Amino acid sequence: MTVLASATIPAGLAKPDLAVLVAAPRGFCAGVDRAIHIVELALERYGAPVYVRHEIVHNRFVVDSLKAKGAVFVEELDEVPEGVPVVFSAHGVPKSVPAAAEMRNMNYLDATCPLVSKVHRQAERLVEAGRHILFIGHQGHPEVIGTFGQVPDGAMTLIETLADAQTVTVANPDDLGFLTQTTLSVDDTSDMVAELQRRFPAIIGPKGDDICYATSNRQAAVKAMAPRCDLVLVIGATNSSNSQRLREVAEREGAAAYLIQRAVNIDWRWFDGVATVGITAGASAPEVLVQEVLARLADRFTLTTENITTAVEQVVFKLPRALVAS
């Protein structure tokens, strides 16, 4: 990606007009907000350093902000020294991770999103009932690794694409269940689930949708906004599944779409011939980055801004008792 150095129109030249549609909901979800708050409260209670296994959420700005406060990010528990607290990321971890922490008598805090934990419990119940699980998700994503780690090896098969759903073979079609990663494309997942249900009529799934409310809401807002846009900017990290899905949704609705981490990543050539731009942010991107992008646009254009609101979120998740007890 080429980044042009100057974002400001020279003095004396009129700024061109630009209509900006801003999607709502956007940005932080309740699970991300909870996870970040857990790290901040741990730093207040125990002092620095507090170790965090894996990025607490997939956003470099958030990770760097927590590093500045004393958080240390590692990939595995064997990188954590004795006598310091450790936090598990919002994406969830295999059962082997807390088991290893307990063997070392580590003080650990689990910041797994409660909606991911719900999927973990569903997986356990399906396996206990003797069902093999077809799990719809992305290979290598931390949430997928964590969910597979809740059940014995061989108890789950990963379904990544519609082609996988069309061709997967199973030992017993009458003893199947399906679950999904929480941050997938609503439309793609619906197609895959429908195909699995067509091929395996006895398959059972969750009572409610495993794709979390925040992922669904942000995709719905982009669907409402993107048809009116020539260009959509999605603020989020490249390793953020839900942010990548927002970019895909915008493209399917006919807009050019780019995923950017910060305002500095904007390439002004994208704006050639653009009259209307849409702005949204993935569930792990803070609002300050949205405002940063809007400020950068205002340096170059005369903005007319409109909010596109498709839902109002009021979800709040409880914090671990260890952090709220007096």
From TrEMBL:
It comes from the Bacteria. Binds 1 [4Fe-4S] cluster per subunit. Signal peptide: none annotated. Pathway: Isoprenoid biosynthesis; dimethylallyl diphosphate biosynthesis; dimethylallyl diphosphate from (2E)-4-hydroxy-3-methylbutenyl diphosphate: step 1/1; Isoprenoid biosynthesis; isopentenyl diphosphate biosynthesis via DXP pathway; isopentenyl diphosphate from 1-deoxy-D-xylulose 5-phosphate: step 6/6. Keywords: 4Fe-4S, Iron, Iron-sulfur, Isoprene biosynthesis, Metal-binding, Oxidoreductase. The active site is at E143 (proton donor). Dimethylallyl diphosphate binds at H58, H91, H141, S240, S241, N242, S284. GO terms for molecular function: 4 iron, 4 sulfur cluster binding; 4-hydroxy-3-methylbut-2-enyl diphosphate reductase activity; metal ion binding. Belongs to the IspH family. Catalyzes the conversion of 1-hydroxy-2-methyl-2-(E)-butenyl 4-diphosphate (HMBPP) into a mixture of isopentenyl diphosphate (IPP) and dimethylallyl diphosphate (DMAPP). Acts in the terminal step of the DOXP/MEP pathway for isoprenoid precursor biosynthesis. This is 4-hydroxy-3-methylbut-2-enyl diphosphate reductase.
